[in-house]
Amino acid sequence: MQILSEISRTFGEYLLVPNLTTANCTPEAVDLSAPLTRHPVGESAQIRIAIPMVSAVMEAVSSPRLAIAIAQAGGLSFVHQNQPIAQQAEMVAAVKRNKAGFRHSEINIRPTATLAEVAALLEQAERDIAVVTDDGSPTGRFLGLISLRDFHPQRHDLNAGVETRMRAKADLVVAPPTISLSEANTLLWDQRLDVLPVVDNQGRLASVVLRRDYELHKRFRNESVDDDKRFRVGAGVNTRDYRDRIPALVEAGADILCLDSSDGYSVYQSDVLDWVRSTYGQNVRIGAGNVVDGRGFRYLADAGADFVKIGIGGGSICITRDAKGIGRGQASAVLDVVRERDRYAGETGEYVPLCSDGGILQDSHMAIALAFGADFLMLGRYFARFEESPSALVRVDDQFFKEYWGEGSARARNAARYGQASGLLFEEGVDGYVPYAGRLDENVSVTLAKIKATMVSCGSITLRQFHDSATLVEVSHQSFLQNSQDIRLRERPSGGRT
Ligand code: IMP
């Protein structure tokens, strides 16, 4: 038995002390891009993201819709693995069917459906326009568009068919699949369109170009896309069925995989990494974890992991520390692993990116985690609050919440992640709610603005500079308490603390 001499600390126990801000150090100059895959020191990683955020490998978080929204913002999503292989592969394929600017149409309806049905569909999806195809599928024969502006319950019989009120193809501007994105955007603006349907020469719908995506592109500019401009997406895998799951995910187009386990310092992860390298060489990129110290990092880095994920017990829905007495404060864990990562880079010339996973309760914790040396952050609670997350929106009294449950809860029954038999004898996560926060792009813009402002105060315009030059200080128990009291006083009943 040994007892580590240092105390296990979390991000909220530190503050950043400003460094000199020079004239070229402005929020506009800050580059938040981060590597996702291991690479020789001094070279660029094969896969990078423009913002250091990825979404958690969780059923309540990473759906195709959220994955597209994150990729548009410049991050990446990892579709969860606690589901049948074919279903997970289909989710990955659904994201990959979308090219930046050209979307696979999500809201589609048959012409024979009733106006009541289209109204319900639009309400449920929180959209105001649907595409009409002969079979109601995203690749059916394109017939027209119907929006909430085309009918009104008080003026029109809701039992009438969609075809009675839709704007038919003959009256619409449509584009051929050969159109470039900039030509499509010109058409959108010249013709004052909200949606431009792209239709092939058999008359089938190929994709749609949305005015909203143009606005998003101008705001974020650096979507996560592959060489064919398709959105990037990651996928979780486990140490049990990987021989079947990984080929299906690779076939579906997953850009990167991530071993999803609460404790990744195991021979099972090494076996999966060996199998991936012997089967695919470097053509399949895969991260591993989770670990909380330098030994775990070294083991997985030696085994060939593309990135290593840090964190046990810090997740907002996590009760692993209560259930098993295992874990480590996230700040201490990141600090220890970063030191080992830097030693490893010095010895081998290989830089292995680090992902800090879980325990981000406020936006300021993101800046602190990055200052500690994490390359990017995996977030569950943060993304679960947004419109695009897959969980249900519920109203309690006058407030809206989204459901959010842990992968180790009885609801998820993710036995593979927790190394339990399929029955899940005991829980390691809770099933609860998080305050609804609206659209992802709006929230992420604000969070990024805060991180950039912090970096500017600390005199850094890249994450590497930030890590190398950040000055951190531990917060005393007293100032910690005062700070928390202050937050309690300011917190409005409807507000989530971010
Ligand atoms: P959050 O961002 O603090 O909500 O943490 C999300 C992270 O918690 C995930 O990426 C997982 O690593 C971890 N996690 C997910 N489900 C559970 C669970 O049921 N128990 C413990 N940890 C979990």
TrEMBL record:
Its cofactor is K(+). It holds the Pfam family CBS. It comes from the Bacteria. GO terms for biological process: GMP biosynthetic process; GTP biosynthetic process; purine ribonucleoside salvage. SUPFAM superfamilies: CBS-domain pair (SSF54631), Inosine monophosphate dehydrogenase (IMPDH) (SSF51412). GO terms for molecular function: IMP dehydrogenase activity; metal ion binding. Keywords: CBS domain, GMP biosynthesis, Metal-binding, NAD, Oxidoreductase, Potassium, Purine biosynthesis, Purine salvage. Residues 166-224 form the CBS domain. The keyword NAD applies. The active site is at C318 (thioimidate intermediate), R417 (proton acceptor). K(+) binds at G313, G315, C318. NAD(+) binds at D260, S261, S262, G311, I312, G313. PANTHER family: INOSINE-5'-MONOPHOSPHATE DEHYDROGENASE, INOSINE-5-MONOPHOSPHATE DEHYDROGENASE RELATED. Belongs to the IMPDH/GMPR family. This is IMP dehydrogenase. It comes from Kineosporia babensis.
